[in-house]
Amino acid sequence: MRTMNWRERISIGPDVCKGRACVAGTRILVSVVLDNLAAGLDWEDIRHSYPPLTEEDIRACIAYAADLAHEEVMLLSDLAPA
Question: How many CB atoms are closer than 10 A to CB 5?
Fold first, then answer.
């Protein structure tokens, strides 16, 4: 299984979207794509709402999030309610 190289499709720069990660060549934030997926929208619904997006762009957003998840370690005690 080949790992998606999200760096080819996700851009982060201080002059675009205030430095937040977005799909390259657009102002569509990665967080917006992920929020839509988390809300249960399917890929076709998201692509309908954001016509510039391709299936590969959505996969890149997921791969970007997966990489971020690998970077942060949270202790279970940090997740317990206060």
Answer: 10
